[in-house]
């Protein structure tokens, strides 16, 4: 009886080791491809994100100007003190993407601080990594674009709330059983993990690893990597084509921003007369 239990336990250990190796290899491949995307498209993506944030702020300013014209000096008091909806973070507020920061995302392990052997990622570094991984402009189909937009909404909310555990979950970073880290970082359910038997711990870990493999395999950026390989066999440079598309979007968004600025300037000049 005990021999059968030990055999099953060893089988579970081997299965977990194989699954973990598969996950590690998949994560390595994703990091390599993400670094390629970053080198070819990273600056354009950052510029487009900043322009989107800037135009959103300008549109908000135009809305305020229109309300002031409508209500004059007696702008309805219900707006005073009303909570404003959260906005996606402006990447200009994050550390500049110099070489060190790019290495922090793509050239290092999944974290920057270590507690009891566990690397705990920096909130901003992890946010930027996820923003790149799920950027809607990297999606090659409408379905993937919808998926990216939905995922980015959750990423932005977690970042705005400083919710590191959620960002870690979205990034597929799990906490090994038996590791204790501060309660503010590790949810109650994970902290209780160390109370499980070894067999239960292995079963839970194996389930989590398999879920990560499935989730990562369905990422739009993984699908993009396959399309890049297929295009290469066809003699095409898909990332080069995407760079051209991004430049066009940047040009259009820049024109939109300049138009909104001109509108605001004209409105302020008219009000000053």
Main sheet: strands, sense, barrel: 2 strands, antiparallel
Q: Label the structural class.
A: mainly alpha
Sum up the overall morphology in one term.
elongated
What count of helical segments does DSSP give?
A: 9
* Percent range for β-strand residues: under 5%
Q: What are the secondary-structure elements, in order, as H or E? A: HHEEHHHHHHH
Got a strand count? 2
Q: In which range does the helix fraction lie?
A: 55-70%
Radius of gyration: 24 Å
Unreliable segments of 5+ consecutive residues? 81-86, 91-117, 175-186
Distance between the termini: 93 Å
Strand order of the largest sheet: 1-2
Taken together, the total number of domains comes to 1
Describe the structure.
With 273 residues, the chain is mainly alpha-helical. The protein has one domain (2-272). The chain has nine helices and two strands; from the N terminus they run ααββααααααα. The protein has a two-stranded antiparallel ribbon. Helix 1 crosses helix 7 and helix 1 packs parallel to helix 9 (238-272).
């Amino acid at each position: 009886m005990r021999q059968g239990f030990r055999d099953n336990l060893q089988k579970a250990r081997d299965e977990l080791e194989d699954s973990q190796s598969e996950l590690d290899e998949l994560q390595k491949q994703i990091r390599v491809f993400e670094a390629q995307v970053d080198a070819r498209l990273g600056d354009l993506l950052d510029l487009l994100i900043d322009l989107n944030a800037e135009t959103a702020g300008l549109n908000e300013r135009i809305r305020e100007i229109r309300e002031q014209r409508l209500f004059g000096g007696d702008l309805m008091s219900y707006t005073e003190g009303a909570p404003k909806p959260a906005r996606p973070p402006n990447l200009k507020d994050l550390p500049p993407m110099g070489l060190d920061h790019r290495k922090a995302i793509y050239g290092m392990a999944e974290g920057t601080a270590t507690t009891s052997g566990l690397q705990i990622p920096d909130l901003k570094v992890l946010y930027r990594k996820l923003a790149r991984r799920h950027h809607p402009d990297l999606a090659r189909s409408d379905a993937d674009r919808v998926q990216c937009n939905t995922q980015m909404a959750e990423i932005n909310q977690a970042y705005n709330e400083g919710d590191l555990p959620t960002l870690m979950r979205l990034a597929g970073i799990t906490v090994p059983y038996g590791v204790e880290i501060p309660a503010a970082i590790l949810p109650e359910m994970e902290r209780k993990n160390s109370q499980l038997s070894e067999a239960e711990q292995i079963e839970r870990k194996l389930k989590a690893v398999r879920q990560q493999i499935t989730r990562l395999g369905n990422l739009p950026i993984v699908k993009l990597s396959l399309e890049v390989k297929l295009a290469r066999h066809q003699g095409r440079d898909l990332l080069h084509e995407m760079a051209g598309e991004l430049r066009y979007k940047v040009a259009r968004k820049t024109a939109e921003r300049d138009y909104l600025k001109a509108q605001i300037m004209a409105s302020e000049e008219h009000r000053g007369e």
